[in-house]
Amino acid sequence: MSDTRPLRVAVIGSGPAGIYASDALMKSGQDVSIDLYERMPAPFGLIRYGVAPDHPRIKGIIKSLHRVLDKPQIRLLGNVNVGEDITLDDLKKHYDAVIYATGATDDRELKIPGGEHTIGAGKFVGFYDANPHFSESWAQPAEAVAVIGVGNVGLDIARILAKTGDELLVTEIPDNVYESLKNNQARDVHVFGRRGPAQAKFTPLELKELNHSDTIEVVVNPEDIDYDEASMEARRNSKITDQVCTILENYAVADPKDAPHKLYLHFFEQPVEVKSDNGQVTALVTERTEYQDGRVVGTGQLTEWPVGDVYRAVGYKSDEQPGVPWDEKELVIPNVGGRVLTEGPTADGIAGVPGSADPEAELRETIPGLYTTGWVRRGPVGLIGNTKGDANQAVANLLEDQENGIGFQPEAPTEDDAIELLHDRGIDYTTWEGWYNLDAHERSLGEPEGRERKKVRSIDEMVHYSSGEARVKA
C-alpha cells in the first residue's frame, strides 16, 4: 500500500458484524477508506430483517450502528450483490483487503423422519420482518402449532404466533404482514427442547416478557423443572442461566391465566418424527429424555402431539459466497482468527498460527487480503454484541498483515474507481444519504397511524425512495 493514500477495505454485509468491523478499522488510528457493500437497498442486516418487530429495545442498537455509518471514512453501497453484480476478483482490483460479514439467514435441516414437512424459522422471520427475498404472505397457521428449538429465535416465532395481529399493528410491520397475521388461528403454541431448563438459550428479558401480553398464558410443566449437578453448576456460574431457570420455575407454579392463547414451553422432549397426510402435518412425535451421567439421553417414552404446523428453529446457516473457500461441514468460511483459509491442506502450512484449534489448519494457507467476521465466520451462535470481539480480532490481523506487506495489490484503489465500476455495470446502487431518504419515507408512512415507522418491503420501492434528494444528516 502506498503511503500517499488511505488503506482501502471492502466490507461485505452491513449488519452488525460488518459495521463493527468498519468501526474497528476507523478506531485503529490508520488512515482508512471503507466501502460497505450490502445486497439490500437498506442497511443494518439482522437488526432490520432478523429481529422480531415487537422488540424495539433490540432495534435500538441501530442508533449506535447509525453513528458508525455517519463517519466520513465509510461509504455505504447498497443494492449490490457481491458475487453476482461484482465479483471478488473485481474487488481485488480496487481494495487492499476484503472482509466478508454476510451473516446467516437460511435454515438448517431437521434430520428426522418427516422433517422435510417442517417450516424453517428463517422463512417465517423473513416474512414478518418484510424481507423482500421471502414470502409476501403467510398461510393461516393451524390452531395448534409446534416450534422446535429453545433459543431466542424459537421464542420470537412462538410469541408472534401466539399474539394477535392487532397487537403487532403498533410495530413497524407493513400492511401485507398485518393482513396475514390478523387471520392467525393458532391457539396452542408448543415449544420443544430436548434438554432441561438450564440448557435453554433464552435471554431472561425475552422470556419474562412472554407473560406481558394479555392474550398469552405461558405454561411450563412442573415435571420439566429438573437439574443435574452440571445444570446446578451452570446456574452458579452464569447469572443469565440462573435468571432463566428462575423465570421458568415461576411459570411452572403460576396460577392459570384467562387468556385465549396458550404458549407451552416443553423440556426433555426430543423430536423424533413429524407425521403428515399428503404433505399436511398432523402430529409431532417426541421422545422423553432425562439426565444420565452428565448427558441427556432418550427414555423410549414417546408422545404424539396433534399439531398442524411444525416450525424448526434449530439454527441458521450461512450462504456460500462465490469465489470464497467454504467449509461444507461447519457451513462457514474456513478461517483462523478471521484470516480466510484455503479449502484443503497444503504443504507450506500457515505462518503465524501454530496451535490452532483446527488440527488441519496448520496444514492450510491463509489467503492474503481476505478476512471474515460474524456468523459466516463462526456459525450462528452468540448475541449481537459477541460479534464485536470477532471484528476486533479480524481487523487486528488485517492490520498486522498490511504492516507486513500482505494483502491485495489493487490496480485502481481510489474511491472514484470503485464507483466507476458500479456505473459501468449499470448497478442502481443506494447510499447512506439515500438511507436518510428511505428512513424519512418509512417514518412518514407510520406517522398517521401513530407508529414510529412502517417498513417498505419492495426492493424497487426502497431504491426509488432512496434516490430522492439527499437530506441533511441529523
Structure explained in plain terms:
The protein is an alpha/beta fold and 474 residues long. It has 2 domains: 7-104 and 319-429, Rossmann fold (3-Layer(aba) Sandwich), CATH 3.40.50.720; 106-316, FAD/NAD(P)-binding domain (3-Layer(bba) Sandwich), CATH 3.50.50.60. 31% of the residues lie in helices and 21% in strands. It is built from 17 helices and 18 strands. The strands form 4 sheets. Strands 3-2-1-4-18-17-16 form a 7-stranded mixed sheet. Strands 6-14-7-8-10-9 form a 6-stranded parallel sheet. Strands 11-12-13 form a 3-stranded antiparallel sheet, with no helix packed on it. It is globular, with a radius of gyration of 24 Å.
Kindly summarize this structure in a few lines.
This protein has 474 residues and is α/β, with parallel strands linked by helices.
Shape: globular
Report the sheet-strand fraction.
15-25%
Low-confidence stretches: 345-357, 469-474
As a whole number of angstroms, the C-alpha radius of gyration is: 24 Å
Write out the strand line-up for the largest beta sheet, numbering strands in chain order. 3-2-1-4-18-17-16
Main sheet characteristics: 7 strands, mixed
Total number of strands: 18
Just name the CATH architecture of the largest domain. 3-Layer(bba) Sandwich
Structural class: alpha/beta
CATH topology of the largest domain: FAD/NAD(P)-binding domain
